[in-house]
């Protein structure tokens, strides 16, 4: 079995986004980037499937500028066997959207005869939560979004426990399938120094969207990006009585 | 006069065209339900749909959709209800529901297909969009026009206005950003069918393990009492439950509290959990990380109780109390009037 894992390079989760003065987007230059946290989880799950013997090869894929190769080297250091970088630069990258990314993954999944495509459930920059679902639609493969557990059942099925609003749901998908990782699917490992060194020798190929025959033109125009409204400064109360009094007089609370 | 008429003709034609396209706007709302009860977020989604203009059709797909279809037919603003019954729709798996939606869209093409941005909607909306080769738009918080929507990026730290260039707009709706539609006052016709489009060959619904609770549902609660890592243990959460029960509140939690195993993960509020906007949000022992604020900062009144005066939560709190929660919460509990 062969697994493809999508890994996105995003502004680090601990950094608070700043909106550009011209309202065209968020400042990303000179800001720390790292692998999208959900993608780390998806990748960890892929590597564990390989370690359990259920999977033969794990391929990490990232779409974007040259700096994405760092994200792919991280994936290789964690345990991916090889990587594919789909270069998309400048303005084309600024407007690269999940539908285009899904088309790239569809082609790569077919070309590499993948049985399973893993993604994080959402990227923490655009918060779209779409790529896995779109990829499953384009491939006409079943999907298991928001996976909290994933197990391969025999050679032809996966069992997915999904996180849903009221609790958990269990489904079975016929392979090939697309699964997106929720936070609790797996605890990602740290790459050891030895593995970081080894990762430098692992294969990292390049495939442009043109070579893959994918049109990446955006379907959605961003008209403006603005700061959210700022909440007016609050007050500190002295004690529980002060808090209750404020809530009753100013917040209309009846208890 | 004639000349003027001729000169202005293209403008008149353009106006006619744009009003005609507005008149033909028609929206399909995909109802979320558990087989017996309509999920509350569907009503908020219907309000968002009403802002698009045009007719609203609600699709109720399920193993036994009749009761929910009747409920939906009474909702104000709904023009038509399509109830699709099929045993394979149990659990509303994407592989079963998407073909039903596509079949309905083929029969009477819609300009918009929308669902609540709950787990259900987030799962199915992009899949439908993929089948139609259009770019979906997630979790909208505002409708500016038929093709222009407002949504948040970067954990709520940026607000984007986006315009779809696709013929069909496939959208999920942040339910807390729209008022619920009135559950009565409507009288839509219900059209029932047993649709053959359901695909049962790809996936199987095995079962669900739902967390039972007598407390209000988080997404719809007026008051939420939420706890973080500072609660220190699963047992200590009892003081929040006791307080919440006394005032009729729902209980929420941070990712840290969920990961530490203090509460189950369906209670998580934040960028990666649920997004809530209650009348009153009480953050107890919560520092206020970016990811948590993303899920609650649109609450009407925010209260923070934390012993660290530097905790970032105090920057968004309307009322802050710097005190040990293990002292403050029991005291609050003893001083509130029971509901």
Task: Give a topology summary.
The complex is a heterodimer of chains A (255) and B (339).
Chain A: E1 2-6, E2 9-11, E3 33-35, H1 37-51, E4 57-64, H2 68-78, E5 82-87, H3 90-94, H4 98-111, E6 116-120, H5 131-139, E7 143-153, E8 157-164, E9 167-174, E10 177-181, H6 193-199, E11 204-206, H7 209-212, E12 220-226, E13 235-237, H8 240-250
Parallel strand pairs in A: 1-4, 1-6, 4-5, 5-11, 6-10, 7-10
Antiparallel strand pairs in A: 2-3, 7-8, 8-9
Helix pairs in contact in A: 2-6, 4-5
Chain B: H1 2-23, E1 26-30, H2 41-50, E2 55-62, H3 66-73, E3 80-85, H4 94-107, E4 112-116, H5 119-132, E5 137-143, E6 148-153, E7 158-164, E8 169-173, E9 189-193, E10 203-210, E11 223-227, H6 238-247, E12 250-253, H7 255-259, E13 280-284, H8 290-293, E14 301-306, E15 319-322, H9 325-335
Parallel strand pairs in B: 1-2, 1-4, 2-3, 3-9, 4-8, 5-8, 11-12, 11-13, 13-14, 14-15
Antiparallel strand pairs in B: 5-6, 6-7
Helix pairs in contact in B: 4-5, 6-9
Subcellular location (chain B): Mitochondrion matrix
Main location (chain B): mitochondrion
Protein name (chain B): Electron transfer flavoprotein subunit alpha
Task: Write up this protein.
The complex is a heterodimer of chains A (255) and B (339). With 255 residues, chain A is of the alpha/beta class. Chain A has a single domain (2-249), classed as Rossmann fold (3-Layer(aba) Sandwich), CATH 3.40.50.620. Chain A has helices at residues 37-51, 68-78, 90-94, 98-111, 131-139, 193-199, 209-212, 240-250, and strands at residues 2-6, 9-11, 33-35, 57-64, 82-87, 116-120, 143-153, 157-164, 167-174, 177-181, 204-206, 220-226, 235-237. In chain A, the strands form two sheets. Chain A has a nine-stranded mixed sheet, sandwiched between helices. A two-stranded antiparallel sheet of chain A has the order 2-3. In chain A, helix 2 packs across helix 6 (193-199) and helix 4 (98-111) crosses helix 5 (131-139). Chain A starts with a strand and ends in a 5-residue tail after the last helix. The mean pLDDT of chain A is 96. Chain B folds into two domains: 26-193, HUPs (Rossmann fold); 223-335, 3-Layer(aba) Sandwich (Rossmann fold). Chain B has nine helices and 15 strands. In chain B, strands 7-6-5-8-4-1-2-3-9 form a nine-stranded mixed sheet, sandwiched between helices. Chain B is elongated, with a radius of gyration of 23 Å. Chains A and B meet through helix 4, helix 5, strand 7, strand 8 and strand 9 of A and helix 4, helix 5, strand 5, strand 6 and strand 7 of B.
């Amino acid at each position: 079995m062969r697994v493809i894992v999508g890994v996105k390079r995003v502004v680090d989760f601990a950094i608070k986004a700043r909106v550009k003065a011209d309202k065209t987007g968020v400042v990303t230059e000179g800001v720390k980037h790292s692998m999208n946290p959900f993608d780390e989880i998806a990748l960890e799950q892929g590597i564990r499937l390989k370690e359990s013997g259920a999977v033969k090869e794990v391929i990490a894929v990232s779409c974007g500028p040259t700096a994405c190769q760092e994200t792919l080297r991280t994936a290789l250091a964690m345990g991916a066997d090889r990587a594919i970088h789909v270069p998309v630069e400048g303005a084309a990258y600024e407007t690269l959207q999940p539908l285009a990314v899904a088309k790239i993954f569809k082609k790569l999944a077919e070309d590499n005869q993948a049985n399973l495509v893993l993604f994080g459930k959402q990227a923490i920059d655009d918060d779209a939560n779409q790529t896995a679902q779109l990829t499953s639609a384009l491939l006409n493969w079943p999907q298991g979004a928001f996976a909290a557990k994933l197990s391969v059942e025999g050679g032809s099925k996966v069992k997915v426990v999904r996180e849903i609003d009221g609790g958990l749901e269990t489904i079975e998908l016929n392979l090939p399938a697309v699964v997106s990782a929720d936070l609790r699917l797996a605890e990602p490992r740290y790459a050891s120094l030895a593995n970081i060194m080894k990762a430098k020798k692992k294969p990292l190929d390049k495939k442009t969207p043109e070579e893959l025959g994918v049109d990446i033109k955006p379907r959605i125009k961003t008209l403006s990006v603005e700061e959210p409204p700022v909440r007016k400064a609050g007050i500190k109360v002295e004690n529980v009585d002060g808090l209750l009094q404020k809530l009753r007089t100013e917040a209309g609370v009846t208890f | 006069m004639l000349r003027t008429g001729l000169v202005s003709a293209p403008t008149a034609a353009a106006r006619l065209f744009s009003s005609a396209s507005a008149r033909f706007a028609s929206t399909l709302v995909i109802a979320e339900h558990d087989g017996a009860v309509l999920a509350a977020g569907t009503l908020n989604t219907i309000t968002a749909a009403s802002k698009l203009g045009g007719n609203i059709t609600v699709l109720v797909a399920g193993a036994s959709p009749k009761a929910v279809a009747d409920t939906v037919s009474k909702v104000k603003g709904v023009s038509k209800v399509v109830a699709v019954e099929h045993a394979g729709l149990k659990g509303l798996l994407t592989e079963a529901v998407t073909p039903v939606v596509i079949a309905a869209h083929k029969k009477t093409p819609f300009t918009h297909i929308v669902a609540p941005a709950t787990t259900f909607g987030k799962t199915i909306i992009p899949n439908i969009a993929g089948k139609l080769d259009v770019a979906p738009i997630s979790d909208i918080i505002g409708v500016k026009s038929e093709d222009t929507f407002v949504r948040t990026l970067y954990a709520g730290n940026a607000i984007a206005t986006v315009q779809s260039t696709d013929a069909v707009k496939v959208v999920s709706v942040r339910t807390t950003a729209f008022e619920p539609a009135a559950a009565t006052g409507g009288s839509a016709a219900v059209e029932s069918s047993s649709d053959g489009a359901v695909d049962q060959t790809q996936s199987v619904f095995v079962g669900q393990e739902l967390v039972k609770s007598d407390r209000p549902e988080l997404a719809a609660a007026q008051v939420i009492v939420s706890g973080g890592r500072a609660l220190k243990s699963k047992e200590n959460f009892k003081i929040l439950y006791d307080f919440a029960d006394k005032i009729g509140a729902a209980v929420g939690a941070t990712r840290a509290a969920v990961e530490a195993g203090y509460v189950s993960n369906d209670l998580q509020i934040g960028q990666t959990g649920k997004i809530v906007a209650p009348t009153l949000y009480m953050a107890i022992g919560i520092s206020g990380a970016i990811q948590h604020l993303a899920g609650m900062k649109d609450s009407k009144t925010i209260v923070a109780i934390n012993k660290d005066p530097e905790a970032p939560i105090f920057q968004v709190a309307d009322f802050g109390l710097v005190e040990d929660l293990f002292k403050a919460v029991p005291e609050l509990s003893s001083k509130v009037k029971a509901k």
